[in-house]
Design a protein that fits this description.
Oligomer: single chain
Strand content: 5-15%
Number of helices: 16
Strand order of the largest sheet: 3-4-9-6-8-7
Helix content: 55-70%
Distance between the termini: 26 Å
Shape: elongated
Structural class: alpha+beta
Order of helices and strands: HHHHHHEHEEEHEEHEEEEHEHHHHHH
Length: 515
C-alpha cells in the first residue's frame, strides 16, 4: 500500500505544487491527502470484513474435525475492531510519508522540473524499490514455509502405519458395568457379536480392540520380566496396552513376525498369554527371541503371562511418532469395557454401517454405537492438522505471491512511465527492442535479487519456528528454498514483461513531447 501511494504521490507533485502556489496551505493539502487515504483504507477494510466472513467458512470447511475449539470458532467483534483500526492506521501511516515528501518540495523548482519531464527523484525511486524488495522477501519467507509444510505432509503420507486401512470399518461402543458384571458376561457378548458380524455378507474378518491405531496412547501398564521384578514401583517400565479379540491382526493386516495370534481358546481358565510388538520385544529381550518368555503385567500381584506372538509395530498416536512398546492382552482372558469393533470387508466398508448397527441392537438394544468410520478416515484424521497447517500457509503464500507480483508490476510500470521520454530518445538514437527490454528487466532482476537475499535470511528464522511441525524435512532444505526463490523470480520477471513490452512500443516523437 505504501509503495502504491508513493507512486501515486509522485504523479501528483505538479498538481500539489499548483494548488499550493494558488494559496492552499500545507495543512489543507495534508488533510486532503490523508482524507483520501483514510477513505481508501475504510473501503478496503469493509471489503476485508466481507472476505473474512467468507474466508472463515472456507477455513472451517478445510479444518479437521478434531481441531480443539472448532465449534466455537466465529468472527470476533473485538478482533474485527482491531483489524479495522489496523486498516485505518495502514492508510494513515502509508499516506503520511508521501504527503510529507510532497510538502517538502520547493514549489518553483518542482514546477520547472516537471515541465522538463523529470523522471522523479532517485531517493523516491530507491524507496519504492526497497519496499518491493521487502515485499518479495516476505513472500519468499511465507512461500518457503508453505513449501516445507507441503513436503512434510508428503512425507507423512508415505509413512507405513503398520496396518492396512483399506475396506475396514470401525464402530465404537462401551459396555456398561451394570449389565456386564462378570467376565463370563463379557466373553459371551464378544462371542455373539463377532459371530453375527462374521455372518454378514461381504465381511471377510472381524475383531475388537480397546484402542484403534492412530487414535491415541490408550491405557498403559507397568511390566517386568519374571524373576527380575524391581523392588520399587517407579523402577518398573511401562508399555501401552490393548485388549483385543482373536483375528485383530488378520483384520488390520498387521504382520505376525513370530509365534501365533490369539485364538478362541485363549480364555479363562487357560494359561495367560500375550502378544507384543517389535518395539517391546527389542526393548525387553534385545538380541533374542521373545517367544516363550514370561513377564508380569500390572505390578507384583499380577500373574506371569507368556509371550506367544510378536507383531510388527503400528503407529498408535500419529504418523510422526517413534515406535512405542505395546502389549496385546486377550480380552477373553482380561475383560475390558472399551470396544472398537473392526470389520474387514470385500468391498465398500461404509455400506455395512447400518447392518452392523442392526446386529449390535439385536444383541442389546440399549447399547449405543458412535464414531462409526472407516480406517481410511482414521488415517486421514491423523494427518489432518498437518494438512490444515499446510493449507493455511499455502493460502497465505498465494496471497503474498499475488501481492508481490502486483508490487513488482506497479513499480516497473511506474518506472517505464517516468522514463518514457528517455526511452523515446534511446529509440530515436537507434536502440532496438532487446536493448529496451534489457534496460527494464535489469531493474526488475535487481529488485528480485535483493528481495531474495533478504527472504532467504528471513526463511532461516521462520524455519526454526516450524521445526517442531515438520516431519523428516530439513528446515533449511536447499531444494525448497532455491525452488521458491526461482519461482518468485519467474513471477516477478513475468510481472515486468508487460511494462517492458510497453516500453518497446513507445513512439519516439510522442515520447519526446511527453508531459
Amino acid at each position: 500500500v505504501a509503495n502504491l501511494l508513493l507512486a501515486t504521490a509522485s504523479d501528483r507533485f505538479k498538481e500539489i505544487a499548483v494548488r499550493m502556489s494558488l494559496g492552499a496551505g500545507r495543512l489543507r493539502v495534508l488533510r486532503q491527502i490523508l482524507t483520501e487515504n483514510i477513505l481508501l483504507a475504510v473501503t478496503g477494510g469493509a471489503f476485508g470484513i466481507v472476505l473474512a466472513w467468507l474466508g472463515l467458512r472456507a477455513l472451517l470447511a478445510l479444518a479437521p474435525a478434531n481441531l480443539p475449539g472448532l465449534s466455537d470458532t466465529e468472527l470476533s467483534l473485538s478482533v474485527l475492531a482491531v483489524t479495522v483500526v489496523l486498516s485505518l492506521l495502514t492508510g494513515i501511516l502509508s499516506g503520511i510519508f508521501p504527503a510529507m515528501v510532497l510538502l517538502r518540495q520547493n514549489l518553483s523548482e518542482h514546477l520547472k522540473d516537471t515541465t522538463r519531464g523529470s523522471t522523479g527523484g532517485a531517493e523516491r525511486h530507491r524507496l519504492r524499490s526497497l519496499l518491493v524488495s521487502v515485499e518479495i522477501a516476505l513472500t519468499i519467507v511465507v512461500t518457503a514455509g508453505a513449501g516445507l509444510m507441503m513436503q512434510s505432509l508428503d512425507r507423512l503420507h508415505g509413512v507405513d502405519p503398520g496396518f492396512n486401512p483399506e475396506n475396514v470399518l470401525t464402530v465404537q461402543l462401551n459396555l456398561p458395568a451394570s449389565r456386564f458384571q462378570t467376565p463370563d458376561a463379557y466373553t459371551a457378548f464378544f462371542d455373539r457379536l463377532l459371530e453375527r458380524v462374521h455372518a454378514l455378507p461381504g465381511v471377510t474378518s472381524a475383531a475388537s480392540t480397546s484402542t484403534l491405531p492412530l487414535t491415541g496412547t490408550g491405557s498403559t501398564l507397568v511390566w517386568a520380566i519374571e524373576g527380575n521384578l524391581p523392588d520399587n514401583m517407579p523402577d518398573w517400565p511401562n508399555a501401552q496396552i490393548r485388549w483385543v479379540t482373536p483375528r485383530l491382526f488378520e483384520t488390520l493386516q498387521i504382520a505376525l513376525r513370530e509365534g501365533r495370534d490369539f485364538t478362541t481358546q485363549d480364555r479363562n481358565p487357560a494359561p495367560r498369554v500375550i502378544v507384543v510388538n517389535d518395539a517391546f520385544a527389542r526393548r525387553a529381550f534385545p538380541g533374542e527371541s521373545a517367544i516363550g518368555k514370561r513377564i508380569v503385567v500390572g505390578g507384583r500381584g499380577a500373574p506371569p503371562t507368556e509371550i506367544v506372538g510378536v507383531v510388527q509395530n503400528t503407529q498408535e498416536v500419529d504418523l510422526q511418532e517413534n515406535q512405542r512398546a505395546l502389549i496385546y492382552l486377550p480380552v477373553l482372558q482380561s475383560p475390558n469395557p472399551a470396544v472398537r469393533l473392526v470389520v474387514k470387508t470385500a468391498a465398500d466398508a461404509a455400506a455395512l454401517a447400518g447392518p452392523i448397527r442392526a446386529e449390535i441392537a439385536a444383541i442389546d438394544k440399549d447399547l449405543a454405537t458412535f464414531n462409526v468410520r472407516t480406517m481410511d478416515e482414521v488415517v486421514g484424521l491423523s494427518v489432518s492438522r498437518a494438512r490444515f497447517a499446510s493449507s493455511l500457509l499455502a493460502v497465505f503464500a498465494g496471497v503474498a505471491l499475488i501481492l508481490a507480483a502486483v508490487g513488482v508490476y506497479s513499480v516497473m510500470a511506474y518506472f517505464v512511465s517516468q522514463r518514457t521520454k528517455e526511452v523515446g530518445i534511446r529509440i530515436a538514437l537507434g536502440a532496438d527492442n532487446p536493448a529496451i527490454l534489457k534496460m527494464v528487466l535489469r531493474s526488475a532482476v535487481l529488485l528480485c535479487v535483493a528481495g531474495a537475499v533478504l527472504g532467504i535470511g528471513g526463511s532461516f528464522a521462520l524455519t526454526r519456528v516450524l521445526r517442531d511441525m515438520l516431519f523428516q524435512v530439513n528446515p533449511l532444505d536447499p531444494v525448497v528454498l532455491s525452488g521458491v526463490t526461482l519461482m518468485l523470480l519467474v513471477v516477478a520477471l513475468g510481472a515486468s514483461l508487460i511494462p517492458a513490452h510497453r516500453a518497446t512500443r513507445v513512439d519516439p516523437m510522442t515520447a519526446i513531447r511527453y508531459e
